[in-house]
């Protein structure tokens, strides 16, 4: 039975709205210029007269450590990377305020104060080189627990310098 024959029955499809009912014309303006209005920049001009750069522009920040990774097509052998690091930074990969305060000095502070447990895993092919280290933080001592920040503590093993204070302990975490 169709709805035209029975006027009491409503057509259920009449209440359904179609996508055409929602077509609205919203005026928009393109904010960007077409690229065909710009002439291509010759290579010689780009190299000899570079555009002035803004030092605050985060897009232009260069990370020197990425140059090695982006300039190699395949992964270089590890001995080449370590020799480049050795020539660039020397034997120390951190800033030192005193030549006697080495990485071993700061590691020993953390171990002697029972703040961490450190395990070094040597390289199988080069036993003199550490492949990776595991450090488990067990405790961080604050100034109140240390009591006197100028008090010198003795190391448990012979090392030069033989003592450390709370300032050295704080520097260990940086």
Textual characterization of the structure:
The protein has 174 residues and is α+β, with helices and mostly antiparallel strands. A hairpin with an 8-residue loop joins strand 3 and strand 4. The strands form 2 sheets. Strands 1-2 form a two-stranded antiparallel ribbon. Strands 3-4 form a two-stranded antiparallel ribbon. It starts with 42 loop residues before the first helix and ends with a helix. Helix content is 26%, strand content 11%. Helix 4 crosses helix 6. The longest helix has 12 residues. The protein has a domain of 81 residues. It contains 6 helices and 4 strands, in the order ααααββαββα.
Summing up helix and strand content along with how strands pair, one would put the structural category as alpha+beta
Please outline the major beta sheet: 2 strands, antiparallel
Which value, in Å, is the CA radius of gyration?
A: 35 Å
> Counting H and I runs of at least 4 residues, what is the number of helices?
6
> What order do the strands of the largest sheet run in, or round the barrel if closed?
1-2
């Amino acid at each position: 039975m169709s709805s035209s024959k029975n006027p009491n029955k409503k057509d259920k499809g009449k209440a359904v709205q179609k996508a055409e009912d929602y077509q609205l014309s919203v005026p928009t303006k393109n904010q960007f210029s077409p690229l065909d209005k710009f002439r291509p920049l010759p290579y010689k001009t780009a190299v000899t007269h570079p555009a002035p750069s803004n030092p605050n522009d985060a897009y232009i920040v260069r990370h020197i450590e990425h140059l090695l990774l982006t300039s190699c097509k395949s992964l270089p052998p590890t001995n080449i990377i370590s020799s480049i690091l050795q020539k660039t930074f020397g034997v120390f990969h951190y800033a030192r305020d005193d030549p006697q305060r080495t990485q071993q000095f700061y590691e020993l502070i953390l171990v002697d104060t029972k703040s961490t447990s450190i395990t070094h895993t040597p390289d199988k092919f080069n036993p003199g080189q550490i492949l990776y280290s595991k450090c488990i933080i067990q405790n961080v001592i604050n100034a109140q627990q240390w009591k006197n920040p100028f008090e010198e503590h003795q190391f448990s093993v012979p090392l030069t310098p033989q003592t450390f204070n709370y300032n050295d302990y704080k520097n260990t975490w940086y």
